[in-house]
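Re: that backbone. Tokens:
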């Protein structure tokens, strides 16, 4: 593949990833006008954001496996087409039920875009510094989507109404279809495998039930519907593990969990969702309640964090020659934790400027972290299963995000009316929990790094030729 063609693949994959994050984040600043326009109650409002997570988490791993076996360009392009259609349906939705269904389908489309993206990049950049730079660009696209999505949505809603947000997203996705057809080359594994239908069904339904239970739990964790959904989700995920252990061609080879690099990549993605995505997804709403900011101002404050994550991800390649991917992951989580500590102590009479240092530090940490996750997702699995590795990594990230959002909403008290003082106190509690999770995730990464180093030392010792005297014994 020529250098020019490789750059085209990278730009297309990064643009698709950017759109996924834009689609995920647009409800952060348009939830109220969307709810008013569709006459949505509190439960329906919860599902405006959660619906996309259901589609994403349920299908990421399946989409990655399908992309490796049936064609990464094919799955990516299908995802772009589906994003056009689902965004158009969301824009024209006559009822809240139709809108929520469109949001779930947007999540499925996002899975079909996100899972093959790292596989496409891995194929275009087989290794070396060029791959590290390319994965840094992918990490920057994640941060850029989070930065642009809420601001774009707030501006479009103010000027043209909430439906224009989704018509604009449909137009951007239509451009992606054109770019994908022209800018991507087809790639797949040399020996395609059969579709693991039992694995797809148990994982998809299990994650969907679990996320649905977490979403419903915001309005009372003891309700029967919540307990049933959580129980079904856990049982189906246990069934998924059993199925994968006894299937000749699983969508997720459980033997990968013997590799500390894969464990670090998956665990790091999970804690990224828990400790960072969960908190930052709810921060704009918290700032509107606690400080009285407008939706546009709150999204602008969040852009300090996400914007700096873009810059840091692009520069993270400079770390690749000095430290390994797992160490970079631990450093990113620790820096995020330090930034979140600086957010503690929020009061209703504070200026948003007080949050800038903490958001800036956390943004740098997030950029380093996103680049590390992309790097590990590709390098911790066999080259021909890169899209599956991306799917597994992002499944963990968005499962963690679902749990992180549920915990954050509960701690912040966003499920019902609250005073500015209560909102500020709840935000402090959520920040404290996120900080502890960052530290726990970093500790887990360091344990995995130690295990990896021991494994390499043991392998090197076994590979050394034995002295002749030993061979004669």
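Recovered sequence:
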């Amino acid at each position: 593949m020529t250098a020019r063609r490789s750059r085209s693949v990278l730009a297309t994959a990064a643009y698709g990833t950017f759109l996924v994050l834009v689609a995920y984040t647009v409800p952060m600043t348009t939830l109220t006008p969307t709810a008013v326009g569709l006459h949505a109650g509190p439960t329906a409002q919860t599902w405006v954001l959660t619906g996309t997570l259901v589609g994403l988490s349920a299908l990421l791993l399946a989409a990655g496996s399908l992309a490796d076996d049936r064609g990464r360009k094919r799955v990516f392009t299908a995802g772009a087409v589906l994003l056009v259609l689902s965004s158009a349906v969301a824009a024209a939705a006559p009822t809240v039920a139709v809108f929520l269904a469109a949001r779930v389908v947007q999540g499925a489309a996002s899975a079909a875009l996100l899972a093959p993206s790292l596989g496409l990049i891995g194929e275009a950049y087989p290794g070396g510094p060029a791959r590290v730079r390319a994965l840094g660009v992918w990490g920057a696209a994640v941060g850029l989507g989070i930065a642009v999505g809420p601001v774009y949505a707030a501006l479009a809603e103010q000027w043209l109404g909430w439906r224009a947000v989704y018509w604009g997203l449909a137009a951007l996705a239509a451009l992606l279809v054109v770019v994908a057809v022209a800018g991507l080359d087809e790639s797949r594994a040399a020996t395609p495998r059969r579709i693991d239908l039992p694995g797809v069904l148990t994982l998809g339904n299990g994650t969907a039930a679990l996320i649905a239970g977490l979403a419903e739990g915001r309005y009372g964790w003891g309700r029967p519907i919540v307990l049933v959904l959580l129980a079904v989700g856990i049982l189906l995920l246990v069934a998924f593990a059993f199925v994968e252990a006894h299937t000749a061609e699983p969508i997720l080879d459980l033997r990968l969990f013997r590799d500390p690099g894969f464990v670090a990549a998956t665990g790091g993605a999970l804690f990224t969702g828990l400790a960072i995505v969960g908190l930052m997804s709810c921060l704009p709403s918290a700032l509107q309640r606690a400080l009285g900011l407008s939706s546009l101002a709150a999204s602008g404050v969040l852009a300090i964090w996400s914007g700096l994550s873009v810059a840091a991800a692009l520069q993270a390649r400079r770390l690749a020659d000095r430290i390994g991917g797992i160490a970079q992951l631990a450093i990113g989580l620790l820096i995020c934790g330090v930034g979140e500590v600086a957010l503690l102590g929020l009061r209703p009479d504070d200026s948003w400027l007080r949050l800038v240092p903490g958001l800036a530090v956390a943004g740098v940490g997030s950029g380093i972290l996103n680049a590390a996750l992309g790097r590990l997702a590709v390098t911790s699995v066999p080259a021909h299963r890169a899209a599956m590795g991306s799917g597994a990594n992002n499944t963990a990230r968005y499962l963690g995000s679902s749990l992180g959002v549920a915990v954050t909403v509960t701690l912040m008290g966003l499920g019902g009316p609250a005073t500015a003082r209560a909102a500020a106190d709840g935000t402090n509690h959520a920040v404290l929990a996120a900080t502890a999770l960052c530290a726990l995730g970093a500790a887990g990464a360091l344990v995995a790094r130690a295990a990896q180093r021991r494994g390499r030392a043991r392998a090197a010792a076994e590979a050394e030729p034995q002295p002749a005297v030993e061979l004669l014994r």
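Residues 7-184+251-454 form a domain with the Growth Hormone; Chain: A; fold (CATH 1.20.1250.20). The radius of gyration is 22 Å.
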